């Protein structure tokens, strides 16, 4: 890649990632979470494998676009699903676990990439190590996505593992926590309430700052480490970014 090609491949991911978060949750309301979330993970895995086998710059940009599209609904969908089971103050702890797991996954991904990079030139295709990283990690994710169809829970009203007493308890706790405030549908009145709520805007500004810092590290940590010592091999760079996420 030359010029701004690398930057374009990074930025194109965020276009669908931003635009399709809300539409993804609207679809999630109509489907079983075990179906929609596992389908998104599976399609994301296929696109990840695609990044490892494409041979043109246009193909890479296309794969990055679809990676952003299918990844867009995963965290919002997970939060939406958790919020249907837990009131606000119980939900916070579960969200902390979700975010910590995300950071640990990045650390483990770096360790796995360090090991896979040893396969440089291996196999009948003689693919470079970076290609094997996408192919192997995408393949493992595809298998996990299939299992998620049976591992991810559905809405409390349709979850077969809950008893009637359990459903009633969850409903009472959520209703007691919500009080008189309800947001069952997205219409003009509800949208106006959201846009005029100062807390929404303050939270948005804080979250933008958090995401800027987080994604700067996620995307550019290997490049920064490489620039600090150009003699480092790609494998060494992968190993050195692991402590950041730990």
From TrEMBL:
GO terms for cellular component: membrane. Its main location: membrane. Keywords: Membrane, Transmembrane, Transmembrane helix, Transport. One of its GO terms (molecular function) is transmembrane transporter activity. It is found in: Membrane. Residues 1-246 form the Major facilitator superfamily (MFS) profile domain. Pfam families: MFS_1. It is a multi-pass membrane protein. It comes from the Eukaryota. The chain crosses the membrane at residues 6-28, 35-57, 63-83, 95-117, 129-152. InterPro entries: MFS, MFS_dom, MFS_trans_sf. This is Major facilitator superfamily (MFS) profile domain-containing protein.
